[in-house]
């Protein structure tokens, strides 16, 4: 009887193990391995394909768009400066920029400070306002909300690779030009894309609210464009293979290359991008004050020192852009 019971137990155990093995084997055999594509950055959306290609802005509809107000004269009785006085009374200059544009404005991971060529422009303005370049408060903006931030007086100035155009001058004021960038194309090394002519039918990343996006739609209307809030998002989707190229100003693309040595800038310029400091349109005294700072740094070497520190990978330092005044 005892041997009989042991035999029954052994049979049950073997049956149980066999059933488990069969179940497990069946599970493995029926399982399928799938690979999920990395998610797109927050806010990334395909540009509409059913919209008409934007026509180039008419030339000359505002004269020279880079012409600005002349600085205050150094001698004589200072004119009223209500905006400048209010900023000085506040004790800090509020600057709109982006902390994801390496070389132009970015947060140094080692120190936590915000640095770059555009930041240097803002620091020089603060130096002339307060005698202290650190009297700054930063507000982070996407390219698409720069104009709104100025119109609603959320910032005093925008120092964020902002191209001066006639269309934008209807909404905000600009300083004189402080840099001339050129729109080009960024790809992974070894790509068959060698310039703008190769972008047709390719997926290209561009930031919303930029002249780069508008020109890309004009030059390569058959490109499949992915729009994102920040240029740093374009780096992510290019590295993940979700786009074939990025098109933007060479200053911005150089910043992306500085973060990834497997990328390269290719092709000729698609067009010039004259940068200006954005200012609320009604604040003419601040426009003149900022232009005075820009005139100083053209002459005292500050502009060249900043270029050599941040943008030398674009080539030897050019002369700073000459100021054009409308009065």
UniProtKB/TrEMBL annotation:
Residues 25-81 are annotated as: Disordered. Residues 25-35 have a biased composition (Polar residues). This is Transporter substrate-binding domain-containing protein. InterPro entries: Bact_solute-bind_prot3, Solute-binding_3/MltF_N. Belongs to the bacterial solute-binding protein 3 family. Keywords: Signal, Transport. Residues 92-314 form the Solute-binding protein family 3/N-terminal domain. Residues 1-23 form the signal peptide. PROSITE patterns: PROKAR_LIPOPROTEIN. Gene3D superfamilies: Periplasmic binding protein-like II.
